[in-house]
């Protein structure tokens, strides 16, 4: 065979240095990019997530063409479009008479299964190359994990610091400590005024995509009205520089704070750009380090930020590939309650949850502590079924790809993996939300009231969660204190908590079918 090599580039592989192109030359390669129905609807993604990916794909095709690559770009409404990666790759193999296919490994198990099938189904040789946009290659993660009873992010993170040299002085961490989390626990302060995010104008490509999405996916969750995600590398770099200059210095201090109506605070809001390949995570960390070295941002902010990326993000990815496919079905706490309707509609008197669903609907974004300690904490305490919860998270956030969404949901939030990822469930009562947010002051519920009418539902749910999971969780060293408190309570008090929680749970309306999957 003498034809060119076909290089399919997926919607989250939009990096010019993607490994599938690294050893290719433009004269001998056809790049294939495919907008396909299967990817746009395998879950009913937030409209803004689809718009982001399609617009970024179209811009990336232009970026590649501008430096000489031949790009065969299949649009969603192309009448010949078969609707799947598999169908489009097969059609392109035939159309271009290629001699082989080379592709970077995908981010999701589901797509990896399909690709493995190409080996037997395609009439040409297939080469799947590792995705090198991560600091820790998967074989190294497996090696690190092998034989460890407990996989703890903190130990992994230290290895990544050593490997990258980020915030290191020789083999010692700068500032004498690996982790400055203790300094990063600021609650909301009155009058806190976060800077606004840069606004990116819609060019003709984005306008066309927004119209396509509005017409074709109008019934999907979420709004397109405030669509402002960077869709080109230049815009993503501008968003990055804006964060480094205006928000990084206070990132650490307010990392865990929540303020009603302030949707981004001092967060980076860069996860979609990182995940689809518009920003290189290691480069971003090096730039953050420079902000500290040149005196523009404090160490606790920069360390906290770098830890999220070379620590949590890398660790989460390793866990995904280590634990799949079982992680998708894990339900270690045997939680069976269906997802309540308010996750989709935002209609609840719980102000914290209503605000988190509102920003999610409007921006396809909620920041980490909203995802973990409000939306996630409720799901944990109420015993929501992990697969329903995972579908919701995969649908609603612009940055959601299963490799990063699922370990966060099943592991970090729901403890469905029986503690493989987190040393204890992040369960919290209303007092935590009250401390870290300004939500409770104007809530219909009273955060100080523990049970009965008008009491904050998180309070009784917290004890209900511990009580119903006692046989599974009582042995956790880090839960010894709450279990001791529970046992010290009078029988009457315990019954009051349980009844109050049951009464609240009975009011939850399950979501209608069809929000997440067709
Ligand atoms: P910042 O708070 O500014 O953090 C900086 C960067 O660190 C992020 O851009 C991200 O790349 C990385 N990061 C931080 N925490 C994590 C983490 N736990 N896992 C992986 N990367 C992390 N992140 C996703 O990218 N996609 C998801 O689908 C996703 N689902 C999540 C689901 C749950 C239940 C939880 C608790 C967290 C989830 N996260 C997910 C992690 C985190 O909440 C988002 O990365 C973060 O909110 C993105 O916003 P940001 O860019 O402003 O992040
Ligand atoms: C999420 C997504 C969507 C909505 N649409 C497309 C698409 O039309 N074409 C494409 O190549 N990728 C899309 N993606 C991203 C893929 O789902 C993602 O690349 C795979 O899940 C592998 O991680
Ligand atoms: Fe949320 Fe309870 Fe506070 Fe209301 S009182 S905002 S439900 S934590």
SSE diagram, text form:
Layout: E1 5-8, H1 19-22, E2 29-34, H2 37-41, H3 47-66, E3 70-74, H4 85-96, E4 100-104, H5 109-121, E5 125-129, H6 138-145, H7 153-164, E6 168-169, E7 172-173, H8 204-216, H9 233-246, H10 248-251, H11 271-276, H12 281-293, H13 299-323, H14 342-345, H15 351-363, H16 368-382, H17 386-396, H18 402-413, H19 430-436, H20 457-468, H21 470-473, H22 480-488, H23 491-505
Parallel strand pairs: 1-2, 1-4, 2-3, 4-5
Antiparallel strand pairs: 6-7
Description of the molecule:
With 518 residues, the protein is mostly helical. It has three domains: 125 residues, Rossmann fold (3-Layer(aba) Sandwich), CATH 3.40.50.620; 135 residues, Serine Threonine Protein Phosphatase 5, Tetratricopeptide repeat (Alpha Horseshoe), CATH 1.25.40; 164 residues, Orthogonal Bundle (DNA Cyclobutane Dipyrimidine Photolyase, subunit A, domain 3). The chain is built from 23 helices and seven strands. A five-stranded parallel β-sheet has the order 3-2-1-4-5, sandwiched between helices. It has a two-stranded antiparallel sheet with strand order 6-7. Strand 4, helix 5 and strand 5 form a beta-alpha-beta unit. Helix 7 packs across helix 13, helix 16 packs across helix 20 and helix 20 crosses helix 23. The longest helix has 25 residues. It is globular, with a radius of gyration of 24 Å. The model has no long low-confidence stretch (mean pLDDT 96). The site of iron/sulfur cluster has 14 residues, from helix 15, helix 19 and helix 20.
């Amino acid at each position: 065979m003498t034809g060119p090599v076909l290089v399919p580039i997926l919607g989250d592989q939009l990096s010019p240095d993607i490994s599938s192109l690294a050893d290719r030359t433009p004269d001998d390669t056809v790049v294939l990019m495919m907008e396909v129905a299967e990817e746009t609807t395998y879950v009913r993604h937030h409209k803004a997530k689809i718009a982001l990916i399609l617009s970024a794909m179209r811009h990336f095709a232009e970026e590649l063409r501008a430096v000489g690559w031949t790009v065969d770009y299949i649009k969603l409404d192309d009448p010949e479009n078969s609707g799947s990666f598999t169908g489009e790759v097969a059609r392109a193999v035939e159309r271009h008479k290629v001699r082989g296919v080379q592709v970077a490994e995908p981010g999701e198990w589901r797509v990896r299964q399909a690709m493995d099938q190409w080996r037997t189904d395609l009439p040409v040789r297939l080469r799947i190359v590792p995705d090198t946009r991560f600091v820790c290659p998967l074989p190294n993660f497996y090696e690190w994990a092998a034989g460890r009873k407990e996989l703890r992010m903190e130990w992994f993170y230290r290895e990544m610091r050593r490997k990258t040299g980020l915030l290191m002085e020789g083999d010692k961490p700068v500032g004498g400590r690996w982790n400055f989390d203790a300094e990063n626990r600021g609650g909301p302060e009155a009058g806190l005024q976060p800077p606004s995010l840069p606004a990116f104008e819609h060019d003709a490509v984005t306008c066309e995509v927004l119209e396509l999405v509005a017409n074709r996916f109008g019934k999907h969750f979420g709004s397109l009205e405030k669509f402002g995600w960077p869709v080109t590398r230049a815009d993503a770099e501008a968003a990055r520089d804006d964060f480094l200059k205006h928000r990084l210095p206070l990132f650490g201090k307010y990392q865990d704070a929540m303020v009603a109506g302030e949707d981004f605070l001092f967060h980076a809001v860069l996860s979609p750009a990182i995940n689809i390949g518009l920003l290189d995570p290691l480069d971003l960390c090096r730039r953050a380090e420079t902000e500290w070295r040149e005196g523009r941002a404090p160490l606790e902010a920069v360390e906290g930020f770098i830890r999220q990326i070379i620590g949590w993000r890398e660790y989460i990815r390793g866990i995904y590939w280590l634990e799949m496919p079982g992680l998708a079905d894990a339900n270690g706490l045997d939680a069976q309650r269906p997802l309540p309707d308010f996750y989709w509609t935002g209609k609840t008197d719980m102000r914290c949850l209503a605000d988190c669903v509102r920003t999610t609907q409007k921006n396809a974004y909620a920041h980490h502590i909203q995802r973990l300690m409000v939306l996630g904490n409720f799901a944990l305490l109420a015993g929501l079924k992990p697969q329903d919860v995972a579908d919701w998270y995969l649908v609603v956030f612009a940055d959601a790809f299963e490799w990063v969404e699922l370990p966060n949901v099943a592991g970090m939030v729901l403890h469905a993996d029986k503690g493989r990822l987190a040393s204890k469930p992040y369960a919290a009562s209303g007092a935590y939300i009250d401390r870290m947010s300004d939500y409770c002051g104007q809530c219909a519920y009273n955060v100080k009231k523990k049970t009965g009418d008008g009491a904050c539902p998180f309070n009784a749910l917290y004890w209900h969660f511990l009580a119903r999971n006692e046989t599974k969780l009582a042995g956790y060293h880090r839960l010894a204190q709450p279990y001791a408190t529970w046992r010290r309570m009078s029988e009457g008090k315990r019954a009051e908590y349980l009844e109050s929680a049951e009464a609240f749970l009975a009011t939850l309306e399950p979501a209608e079918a069809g929000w997440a999957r067709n």
